[in-house]
Amino acid sequence: MAHQAGGQRPAPRPVPESVEAQAYLQDYATLVDTVPFPSVVVDHRWDVVLANRAYDTLFSRVGAHPTAMPGDNLLRFVLFHPDAGTVLGDHEARWCLPMLARFKSDLERYGSDQGLQAIRREIAQDPLMEAAFRQGLPHWIRAVGDTAAELDGAVRPLLHPHPRWGTTDCRIVEETPKALEALGYTRLTLILRDPRPPAAPARRPRPGRTTAHLTVVPAPES
Predict the structure, then answer these.
(1) Distance of CA 51 to CAs 35, 42, 159, 203, Å?
(2) Higher pLDDT, 187 or 16
(3) CATH number (domain holding residue 136)
(4) Whole-structure pTM value
């Protein structure tokens, strides 16, 4: 479903006019950067407002694209970047369809927004994606239920470039403090699952089948 989207690079994102809001956003960026998992703040168009180092690392091997870089717009990356499937496992079923469902919900809420309308036009330019949006998506939503557009709590497969993680899963946690919500922003964090199997617990010797003694207790004299 991914394709090479045309058009111009998205316009620069507006900065909050309030000095207090700008200061809050700077401090919040410091907080987000302390999180070890990929974390990103987006606006209602899915333009990236700020992201931490772990987010940048996750997408560090993604090739250049004029309109769909993950550091510019997360929705465009999922839908349009040809490298999206190299990071987002089971890309079409587990990422594209849920994000299309979320986009449909956003479009209903912010119907006149020019940024969202531009994405809608790009979807219409791709026959396969347009068919998925108009025909496949309603069927999928009926199958999975009304929560199809909900990202919070969803578990999705990832292909992390660092060998520490490799092929793994992440749980999407959507948490937005009131001050951030007042600015029209949402924060998403991808909690990575450790792909390594847990270490087997040590087996305790059965009573009566060992002559070992605790090191702090002297052995009985013979």
Answers:
(1) 10, 9, 19, 44
(2) 187
(3) 3.30.450
(4) 0.81
